[in-house]
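Slide 14.
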Amino acid sequence: MTCLETLPPTLLTERLLAVLETQRLVLRAPQLGDAKAIAALANDRRIAENTARIPHPYRIADAESWIIAAGAELDAETYLITLANGTVIGGCGFDMREGPSPEIGYWLGTKYWGKGYVTEAVRALIDHAFTNLEHQALQSCVRVTNPGSRRVLEKCGFQWTGVGLCRIRALGSSVPVDRFRLERGIWTALKSWGPVKRVA
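Slide 15: predicted structure.
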């Protein structure tokens, strides 16, 4: 028996997410056919050590489990980040596990770092969360040793709210993190990035 057989077949097809398009990216629901590409990107210690839930090593079975869980989660939205040509480059999304405001998370394959893709993807998530889902605030956190991720949040209008600890699965321990929050009013006042097109 495979893990797919443990879920009703309709569960994998009923949970349809909006497809979000930006200037260079498409954010869409992950599919089982993406598992090999996801595993190839996410099997990097530098990624795992900067995310809460990505294990290391990261195998195709881990990617399949993530895809199935993403389709079954009702209090979260999980997206695959792809280039316009369909190339998988990372993942992002938000969930309600850490309180009343959704928490945004993201990761990107290392060969795509430094090109502004994460900022573009996070801005699409923010626009979707505030415009289509009508959330009033968003939150996120980054390791204190990850200035690149901190800059992403700051460029998107998030404001620092304090420090805390976050359990990192790949490390098997908790690490210090900076916590950030973005209020709808601040987003409205600061929004200067291009429009996001909701396809479906």
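Speaker note: The two ends are 33 Å apart (CA to CA).
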